[in-house]
Amino acid sequence: MFKQLIPFLLLTLSMAAQDMPLTQVLLPNEGWEKVAEGYGHTDAAAVDAEGNFYFADVAKGTEIFKVSHNGEISTYAKGLEKISGMQFGPDGKLYCCQAGKVRQVISVDKTGSVKVLAKDVQPNDLVVTANGWIYVTETKTASIIIISPEGKFTRHKTKMVRPNGITLSVGQSFLNVSDHGSDKVWSYSINKDGSLSNEQSYMYLRTKAPMQVSKGDGMATDAYNRYYVTSEIGIQMYDPTGRMGGVILNPLGKPVNSIEFAGPELAYMYICGKDVIYRRKTKSKGIIPFNKPVAVLKFKK
Amino acid sequence: MSTLLSISKAILTIFIFSSGISPLYSQGYDFGEDSKKKDSVPVGTVTKYTFNTSKIYPGTTRDYWVYVPKQYTPDKPACLMVFNDGVAYVRAKGGARATIVFDNLIHKKEMPVTIGVFINPGTVIGNKGSNDNRRNRSVEYDSMGDAYSKFLIDEIIPEATKKLNITKDKAGRAICGISSGGIAAWTAAWERPDYFSKVLSHIGSFTNIRGGHVYPALIRKTEPKAIRVFLQDGVNDLNNLHGNWPLANRQMASALEWAGYDSKFVMGTGKHSMNHGGAILPASLRWLWRGYPGVKEYVKEEIK
Fold first, then answer.
1. How is domain B32-289 classified at the CATH fold level?
2. Partner B contacted by A296 (CB < 8 A)
3. Domain ranges in chain B?
4. pLDDT tens for residues B183-217?
5. DSSP annotation string for B64-114
6. Complex-level ipTM
């Protein structure tokens, strides 16, 4: 009797981690709240080990700002231009993409001391794994730059048009990258030697109209292995199998560039858009991307 | 029914209901004689393999099973039927019992001598202990386009049937699937009607998981393709973020009928399970294979 059900149960259980409507993420009475305003072009959402939120002003600023759990904004680092993407590493350093004319990948330690990891590159966004590998989207060359913990530089060519946002899976087995210039998010296996393989278009991004591009930009992962992609039509949410769960409306009326879970319990979705930072409390929680991989959380109704 | 069996069934029913899974054996559809093993009927062989060399879905690994009927002889080309979510169909004690049904129907000449290839969706294995595998089922099954048909026709079918004599006649090639595997069966035939001419869909996901809800509209405004289609669904099937399964299947059935396809639609009372489709599998296969050379003349039967 039980044996008879095994295949069906397998099929059904394998379905358990998919088909996730927005109601699994959004709280009915929690809207967006403004966290910060008055900047040129906010970007580079990041989170530290305590869940504090970080951003930069890629247009005109030279500072990196820290937002504490209760919303206090302070300056974390100074004198850094054109930061378009950043994340902390397992060593506590902040790893940053410097776009525009600066064109380098750097690390900044707690004293503000800067180390250049790659020069003459065109970085957009990055992630750092628990093992200290750095993966950087280089939009113009349609590549992912790989920097090993020892500093070895590799450029991995992709099938994407304009790779942009980048995020890890919860177990850090896979890298997911949004294609600003198409309607897809691509997924890559992260191999033991840090290299990438198994390139697969894994999620279809909705576009504003047929034959248009998604303008898929910043990405984040939550603890359930759901993926979030900022795009022209809003923040698109995907279940772990790559099925779209829904579109969270963009509250800003201007493009959202970057997204990260941070704040108390990592339950707040923070977004960067033009001159402002907004956040919204969710039912979900984020991950600390540079921490040791953890098991994927299972959703309970 | 023995006491032990009824107790275990009761426990199971509680477990299933409490976990929100549609019960398999309590939706009112029972197996008929053609789904039961018979001593007088020759039994085909089922062999399990693993496939992990796909270039279309790089890094994926999957199990598949090949069923070869006892009546098969290498000198005569056999028909081919592919099953998506192979494990759900191949198990002799599963919800469909496809190999037993094949044994019985082939024996009675109610379907041709047919090789069954039962294919699971792929998985890319991630780091151990994190439950972080990349499951490729949705990519393979829910996506429109020709990737899955290419995977079948260019990659796995040649490997699975390399030692077998398979017909070159598209009339002898069918594909079946359940849920997302159902729409995947349709997509494979829609993309390659030169290869697959018969489709059997159980509780097919003709909803907006990855855009496949548009098929009824495409069917109505495309010169009909030579595909014979059997669709099964139940009025209590899913209604969720992707769409409403019974409505979507009605739309498909109506479009196929309107466009003049050789199609049949059976709407039962079941939920999102194999129960109904499994119970009517023998009758569905008789309808699907009717008129094939060597098959007994089709006797119209009520399928519900």
1. Rossmann fold (3.40.50)
2. yes
3. 32-289
4. 999 999 999 999 999 999 999 999 999 999 999 99
5. EEEEE-TT--TTSPBEEEEEESHHHHH-TTSSS-HHHHHHHHHHTTSS--E
6. 0.91
